[in-house]
Amino acid sequence: MRTISAQEIKRRGIRAVDDLLVEGPVHVITRNERRYVVMDECRYQELVEAYHEAYVARVLAAMASVERGEVKRLESVAALPGGYGCLAR
Question: For 35-63, how does the pLDDT look when each residue is reduced to its tens digit (9 = 90+)?
């Protein structure tokens, strides 16, 4: 992934990012750390759609598990395994 410093954007303007976007998403570096990712609208919409499709797939898989009886019902939050009983406060 391409990178550009925030200082470079300040100096050259958004055109500096536009030039790099031709090659794909761009990391913006501030204080020597990757801080932001800039991408074109088309790529962003692809990511949103993929996220939504994955979410729907997880929900459908969970519903299928319930229908197959693979779900264990607990009496309370305190009965959750893995230390999640602390949520019952």
Answer: 999 999 999 999 999 999 999 999 999 99
56 Cβ contact partners less than 8 Å away, ≥ 6 residues apart: none
Strands (E), 1-89: 2-5, 26-30, 33-38
In terms of Cβ atoms closer than 10 Å to its own Cβ (0-12, 13-18, 19+), residue 42 is exposed
With a CB cutoff of 8 Å and minimum separation 6, the contacts of 74 are 80
Residue 12 C-alpha from the chain's centroid:
29
